[in-house]
Amino acid sequence: MESKSSVKSVDFSELILGFSSAALYYLGQDIEGQVKAEKVNIPLARQNIDIIEMLREKTKGNLSVEEESLIQQILVDLQLKVIEVSTVVKA
User: Fold this and answer.
1) Alpha-carbon Rg of the chain, whole angstroms?
2) For the chain, give me the number of helices (H) and strands (E)?
3) What is the DSSP letter of 4?
4) Distance of alpha carbon 45 from the chain centroid
5) Residue 65 belongs to some domain of the structure
6) 2: confidence class by pLDDT, cuts 50, 70, 90
7) 3-state DSSP helix/strand/coil % of the chain, to nearest 5
8) Exposed (0-12), middle (13-18) or buried (19+): which is 54, by Cβ within 10 Å?
9) Over the stretch 55-90, which tens digit does the pLDDT of each residue have?
10) Burial class of residue 44 in the structure, from the number of CB atoms within 10 Å of its CB (0-12 exposed, 13-18 middle, 19+ buried)
11) Is the pTM of this model over 0.85?
């Protein structure tokens, strides 16, 4: 059994990256960045993006410059990916 001191704590950036990874998974992204249309679930991807947006709003003024930049870049990337995947899935 692991002791509490050996368990790594998660920082805010890792939390955001976790939600981002989940969103990408639900957008059907594989390791090479290719879209697997059969795995796409836009509503669940959107939910993870919404959680990141909520965390940005709730933590406004309490984040480092790096954390703010990370959230902003991830949200932009995910929004673009939603548009891209939506067009691929419809085609």
Assistant:
1) 15
2) 3, 0
3) G
4) 8
5) yes
6) low
7) 70, 0, 25
8) exposed
9) 999 999 999 999 999 999 999 999 999 999 988 777
10) middle
11) no
Say if 79 falls within a structural domain.
yes
Say how many residues make up the chain. Answer: 91
pLDDT at 3: 55
Structure tokens at 9: 């704590």
42 assigned to some structural domain: yes
Residue 91 DSSP SS3: coil
SS3 1: coil
Contacting residues for 58 by C-beta, under 8 A, at least 6 apart: none
Q: Which residues pair with 29 in a beta bridge?
A: 35
The structural domain count of the chain equals: 1
DSSP code, position 33: S
- Residues 6 or more apart whose Cβ sits within 8 Å of residue 89: 28, 35, 37, 40, 42
Does residue 2 lie within any of the structural domains? Answer: no
Contact 15, 1 (CB under 8 A): no
